[in-house]
């Protein structure tokens, strides 16, 4: 497994954004996301479809812009019930997916990959995370997308959720759950990617 580490350490308190990141946030009318980073819903399909054995409904699909920045570089581990299709617009980052639903009596497989425009080196410009998997992400440096003053603009993607996103279908990974899914070495490597208020005191 590639060593997971934060090139842009998550700040311990709110951090002022770089001017180019601020411009993107303002241009797209983005707002702070509970996972980290910034977002704005851009589409919600008007068709409602049944889920959960017909006891509830969801929009057929929803779509958001999602931005990680040097001031908010971490998308903390979380899980959705629905499939999420990701499309890269600019920047570079690393995704870590814990396949909790594929565990067979032992620990869960972990998948890591880099998203970026260097497809010849295996970077992804589009990727899918199925529902039920824990997903975390963080910003990587990408000089190609620095502004003229050398300041990072961030990782900008679109996320399309099918069926559409609903807050009751979403939860964050806790330290205790991580310990049950991963080896102690993996927990030590990746605990920093947990949402701060989900890290239990040891």
UniProtKB/TrEMBL annotation:
Pfam families: Cupin_5 (PF06172). SUPFAM superfamilies: RmlC-like cupins. PANTHER family: DUF985 DOMAIN-CONTAINING PROTEIN, RMLC-LIKE JELLY ROLL FOLD PROTEIN. Residues 1-13 have a biased composition (Pro residues). This is DUF985 domain protein. InterPro entries: Cupin_DUF985, RmlC-like_jellyroll, RmlC_Cupin_sf, YML079W-like. The lineage of its organism: Eukaryota, Fungi, Dikarya, Ascomycota, Pezizomycotina. It comes from the Eukaryota. Residues 1-39 are annotated as: Disordered. Residues 23-172 form the DUF985 domain.
């Amino acid at each position: 497994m590639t060593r997971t580490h934060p090139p842009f350490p998550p700040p311990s308190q709110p951090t002022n954004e770089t001017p180019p990141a601020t411009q993107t946030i303002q241009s797209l009318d983005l707002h702070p996301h509970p996972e980290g980073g910034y977002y704005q819903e851009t589409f919600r399909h008007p068709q409602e479809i049944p889920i959960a054995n017909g006891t509830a409904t969801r929009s057929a699909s929803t779509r958001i812009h999602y931005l990680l920045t040097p001031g908010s570089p971490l998308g903390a581990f979380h899980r959705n019930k629905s499939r999420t299709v990701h499309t890269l617009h600019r920047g570079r980052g690393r995704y870590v997916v814990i396949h909790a639903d594929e565990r067979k009596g032992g620990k869960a497989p972990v998948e890591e990959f880099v998203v970026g425009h260097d497809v010849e080196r295996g970077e992804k410009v589009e990727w899918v995370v199925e529902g039920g998997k824990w997903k975390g992400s963080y910003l990587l440096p990408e000089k190609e997308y620095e502004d003229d003053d050398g300041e990072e603009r961030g990782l900008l993607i679109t996320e399309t959720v099918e069926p559409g996103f609903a807050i009751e279908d979403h939860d964050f990974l806790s330290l205790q759950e991580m310990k049950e899914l991963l080896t102690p070495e993996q927990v030590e490597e990746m605990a920093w990617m947990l949402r701060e208020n989900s890290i239990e005191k040891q």
